[in-house]
Design a protein that fits this description.
Oligomer: single chain
Protein name: Unplaced genomic scaffold scaffold_1144, whole genome shotgun sequence
Largest sheet: 2 strands, antiparallel
Number of helices: 2
Order of helices and strands: EEHH
Amino acid sequence: MEDTFDILEVDDILTMQPVAALKQSHNIVNDCDLSVSDLLCAKNSFLVHIEHVSWLKKCINTLVEFFWHLENHPIHNR
């Protein structure tokens, strides 16, 4: 945390601020605490964003297939 900086834009000027100086949101949920329904809800946004930042199409397709199998697994319907 001490060596990590965030880039902020203030009045059209880019500045750097240590991440340690930022206040952590109280709405953060750790990945391990996400429910399957929360994960599946977020997947669509995740897939859109990784396409915008030019991930390899093969990687995106692999993730799409993974989420499809996860969402359509018989245990999900219980």
